Structures are given as C-alpha cells and as structure tokens.
Amino acid sequence: MHGNSTQPDISLLERWSEALATAQFQASHISLDALINTLAPAAERSFQRLIQALFRESLLDPNTLTYDEHGHCSLTLPCRAQLRFEHLRPGRMASWDLRGEVVLLREGQTDQKIQFPSQLLTLLNASLTSPADLEVLNRLNVEIDDSFINDTLCLAFHEQWTLKLHASMDPVHQGNLLSHLKNSSGATNPTSVLEQWGTLGHPWHPNYKTKLGLNTEQVINYSPEFEARFPVLLCALHRQFAHVETLAGTADYWQWWSKHFPQAAQQLTATLHAQGLEAGDYLPLPSHPWQARQELPQLFADAIGDKLLVLTDIVAFTAHPTMSFRTVLPEGRCDAPMVKLPVSLRLTSVQRTVSPRSARMGPRISHLLLTILEREPAIGKILSIVPERIGVHFKPIPANDEHSRHLAVLYRDNPHSQLKPGEMAVPVGSLFAIDQHGQPLLRQWVRLSQGQDDAAAMLAFFHDYAAISVQALLGMYLRYGVAFEAHQQNSFMVMAADGQLSRLLLRDFGDIRIDRKTLHAHGLDIELHDPKMTLYDDAGFVRDKLLHTVFMCHLGELILLAARHFDIPQALLWNELSAQVSQCFDDLRAQVEPQRWAAEREALLEQPWPAKSFMRMRLLESHADIVGRLPNPLSAAANAD
Predict the structure, then answer these.
(1) At residue 170, what are phi and psi to the nearest 5 degrees?
(2) Range list of H helices, 234-344
(3) 366, 389, 410 — which closes off a domain?
(4) Sheet harboring 408-412: ordered strands across?
(5) In a designed cystine with 433, which of 117, 188, 198, 311 is the match (CB 3.0 to 4.6 A)?
C-alpha cells in the first residue's frame, strides 16, 4: 500500500521507481524524464478539481479572491500569506478553470511553488467554513496525493500509448484516431481501445485517481489506463447458496456460461470431480485476482471450509478492464459478455463491490427498459441500452447483503451487440482524453463529422449531440420517470457509418432512479429487491440523478471542454442546451401530466441545480450522498450574465 503524505516527495519518487521497474513501463520505454514532465499537468488537473470542489461546495468563499492587473488571482490565508494562481476563473455550473502554477507568497521569504495537492489543502484548511481536524486532514491528504501520483503515471503512459497508436495509423486517416479505429482491420474492438486509452477519472472528484490498497505494480496491472491485461480466476459456488437472476429469454446459467467460456467450464468440472464434488451442485463464479487472493480466503473462510465456495487457480479468461475498473471484457472480444466483479477496495472514495441488489435488479431493470423502448420507437431510434443479462450472488442463511456484496458477479451484453454494420460505440469519457497534439479526442470527431474543427463546426456538432441526448434522456424521464445515471463513463455516443452522430447507448443501471407514480401511470412496475431503492416517491430525489449525471457531469462538462478548446463563449453552448431542453418540454407537453410538466420545467430551466458534495462527504466520512445547490446554468439569470 502506498504512502504517507507527510513526505509526499519521497512517496512520489518511490512510486516512480516502482513504476519504472514494471514490464509495462519498460515495454513502453517510459523514462524518469517522462515522469518529471507530467508533474505540471498532473498538478493542474489535481488542483483544478480540488479548488473547484471547495468553491462549489461553499467550503471556500470565492469573494475572498482578488485579481491584479495581470489577471493573476490571489487568496489571502489566515496566516497572512498569499496563494497566487496563475490563472483561475469561474464559469457556469459553479465550474472553475485553473491553469498554470499555484505559488505561496510569504513576506520576507522566497516564493514557494505548490507541487502536491496535500500542500494546497493543508494551506487552505484554516480558510474552510468547516476546517478538517488533523486526523481527517491527514486522511484526505493521503487520498489526494495518491490520486496525484497515480495521475503522473497515467499521463506518462498515455503519452507513449498515444504516440504508438499514431505511429500505427495509415496516412489516409490523417492522424485521426477515430477514423483509424473505425476503418482499420487491425482494430478488433475499437470501443475497448477507447475505453482504456480514454480513462481519465471523475471530472469533479478530487480523488479521481485514488486507488488505496493497491501497490504501484497492482495499480498498473489492474487499471485500464495502463492497457492492463490480467487473469480472472474461477470459483465455484454451491447452488443452494447462490441466487441467480436472469433476463427473460436467457439460457440456464451453467449452459450460458459454458457456451461463452467452454475451456474454463471443462476445467472447473474436472477440478470439482477431482475433489470428490458433484459439478452439477455448483455454479461458476469468476473473481478478480485481487479479490480471490486478498479478500475471499478471509471473508468466506467458513464457506470455503464447508465446500460451499471452492477457490481454484483456473483462469476463467484474460480480462481487459474498462473505464469502470471492476467491469472487464474477456480478451477484449466483441462477442463476449462484459463482467462486473466485486473489488473490496476504496477506489475514488467508494468500495467497489457488487451488491445483491445490483445483481438482482440489473436484469429486472433491463427488462423494464427494453419493454419501454419497444413501446417508444421514436425514443428507440436515438437511445439503446446494454442489457444486464445475469446476476449471481452468494445467498447465506440468514441473508446478509453486506457480506454477499463481496462475492457476486453481474454480466451485461457487449456494447458491440447493439451496433449496426459500420457503426462504432465511442465512450463519452474518451472524448475528453488528449491526443498527440494536446487536443481532446472530441476535436477529431468534430473534424470527421463536420469537415473542419473550428468554433462553428463545434457548435453544429454540439447541436446534434444535444438533440440526441436531451430528447433521449429527458424524454425517458418526462414520459416514464426514468432518470439514468448517464454520466461520461456509462454513456456511449454511437458513430454512424458516415462518421455522424447516431444515437446514445447506455450501460450500468445499478443507481438508476425511477419516479414510481409516473411509471405506474403507464401500467408498468418492477419487482424490487430493496423497497427503498430504484422506485421513489420523491420527485426531487429522482430529478437530482438526472441533473447531476446527465446535465452536469456529461453535457455540462462537454460544454466546458468545448468552450476551453474551441474558443467558444460558454454562453453560446449553454444557450443551445437550454433551447434543446425547452424544445423537448414543448414536444412532450401533451404527454406529461400538466402539474408535473410545469414543475419539471421550472426545476430544469430556472431553479438551482444539485451539486454532489464530494469533499463534504469525505470530511464527514459519509457514505450517503450529500447534495448542495448551485446556480442553474440554463436559467434566465445565467443568460443575463
């Protein structure tokens, strides 16, 4: 496990030394100089998320900032020292654009450049509306420095990977990675490449690369951004202690599993027979290697002793992790199911297990969504889903969901199964990743679809993008009360054969929220695992999911990216989104109960929006969401700015 932020420079050098010794870094010819060159961009990314979170969550007061004639921004600390930001500007959605260096100025002392996020947070702590005590501050410092150091490794690897991809391109693609992946016979699964190459982490979270509990080699071996490949190990779970949930029309689990992984299925049968066990009494359960070796032997010692759980060394398949660290694709294939595995580690800031609720509700929610899309061909043209087909979890007697979440699996279909010939599913998160020219991948798609990549082309592209996203996601919400968790990581924008935007493709329904009354009004219902989850009577709680994931972390962040890299005033893009939202409400007015229509329109276009308070949650050790409010970037007041 890594380090102590009381000496972040020592921890950084130790981690770099460990990374440089790994096979992946040596194969990519990554040098110490390459890592040193990541310090400035990694600090900028880390500081931006930290400062933005503190201002956005009202932990810091932006009115305490002052600007000089050169545009430099300063913040006076209680100790009378000053923090000077080379470039720090507010934007809509309570966003903050930080670029360049952050320097500490003390009277009579040499200016000190701030290098680590822990240094910045420690300096700012006394200025916070709720300062952290020493224990909490130390814990947060370890987390944010871990994220920062991991990001330096990520940036160095990403640069070399980008150059390697560029070198492999046919000149006909003119350096356009999307064109190359879509049309090159060498790219067997373009979506999988983009999932890994484009993994950046949460756009708001100060802990966007935190992976506490893993050493440096494990971070590199298991994380998608390092082009990871690792063996997933196979366990066997006794049928009487397993719950299997399947999507309607799916074959028997053993039969389905044997079809997809025939060699591992045969090996498991032979291994069980060799132990004097009846193979038919057990079900296959793949396990992340970290989970199989570090967690299961201790957490499930009794079940292992009673032969209810059998651990083996059989390799179920070689995993290619996706943007979601614990969701993997066997061999990177286009015809294999995606496999979501529990990993009992705190990644970002949450333990990434697979709850019995997710295992059961995934197939049930998928069935409901497919039913709705079949009823709504107009929405079906611009929205597809990746169904969650089979969920399996340990079922002890009595039930214990907190224990069972560490021994489960959820299978979903491959995104490729939802594509027509010539189409490509582009993970939305990858559009934010930087190419060999220091530009976001977004620019390449704009150029591919519009023929050029200037501000006018970006505006036209965003018009098409918002038309699909708003009509699909807001349309489903207004008609059926379904609020998808459609942030960047869970969303694909499908590229048509001609390079144009086609439709949205969504995955992962674990945290979907549905308005009970609106769904029931259509004669639809769903069997619940937890009566307090999935279906809700609080319209505001459901709406917050839509606003936070779709309008802020997805569309809002896309606007900020476009404004920064295409030199477009933010207002033009926010106005376009506002117009699309208004149009969607107008189009659906006759299909939505009048009082709800008016309330939802007011909430989306005028009232303050929810802001998930990641720093407050960490300060308070809260596992429940803490949600603040921020000015609505689509409102008339925002347009008047």
Answers:
(1) -70, 140
(2) 253-260, 262-274, 289-290, 296-299, 301-305
(3) 410
(4) 242-246, 388-394, 408-412, 338-340, 327-330, 309-321, 230-238, 282-287
(5) 198
Same domain membership, residue 539 and residue 514: yes
Residue closest to 572 by CA, chosen among 641, 504, 472 = 641
Higher pLDDT, 637 or 321: 321
Crossing angle for the helix pair 134-167 and 117-124, nearest 10 degrees?
Answer: 150
Residues 6+ apart with CB under 8 A from 268: 234, 236, 279, 282, 284, 312, 314
For the chain, give the percent of residues with pLDDT over 90. Answer: 89
* Helix extents (H) in 493-623: 516-520, 539-545, 555-566, 570-588, 594-605, 614-619
Q: What is the pLDDT of residues 80-116, one digit of tens each?
A: 999 999 999 999 999 999 999 999 999 999 999 999 9
Contact call for residues 316 and 285 (beta carbons, < 8 A): no
| Burial (CB count within 10 angstroms: exposed 0-12, middle 13-18, buried 19+), residue 68 | exposed
**Per-residue pLDDT tens for 419-474?**
999 999 999 999 999 998 999 999 999 999 999 999 999 999 999 999 999 999 99
Q: Calculate what percentage of the chain has a pLDDT beyond 70.
A: 98
With cut-offs at 50, 70 and 90, classify the pLDDT of residue 495: very high
> What pLDDT sits at residue 420?
95
At residue 376, the 3 state secondary structure works out as coil
pTM above 0.85, yes or no: yes
Q: Let me know whether 434 and 544 are in one domain.
A: yes
pLDDT, position 1: 41
187/260 same-domain check: no
Q: Are residues 450 and 398 both part of a single domain?
A: no
192, two tokens:
């999988």
Averaged confidence pLDDT in the chain: 94
Q: How many domains does the chain have?
A: 3
97 pairs with which residues across the strands?
Answer: 89
CATH number at residue 450: 1.10.510.40
Q: 80: which 2 tokens?
A: 């009378």
In a domain, 618, yes or no: no
Q: Which residue has the tokens 């299997």?
A: 244
- What's the CA gap between 232 and 221, in Å, rounded? 12
* d(C-alpha 313, C-alpha 191), whole Å: 30
Please identify, among 355, 388, 410, the residue that sits at the C-terminal boundary of a domain: 410
The number of angstroms, rounded, from the C-alpha of 43 to the middle of its chain's C-alpha atoms is 21
Domain containing 138 equals 8-194
Query: Is the distance from CB of 296 to CB of 311 less than 8 angstroms?
Result: yes
Q: Give the relative orientation of helices 441-450 and 455-469 as an angle to the nearest 10 degrees.
A: 90
Gap between the Cα atoms of 276 and 272, Å rounded: 7
Query: Do 501 and 464 meet the contact criterion of CB atoms below 8 Å apart?
Result: yes
Q: Which two tokens stand for residue 12?
A: 């950084």
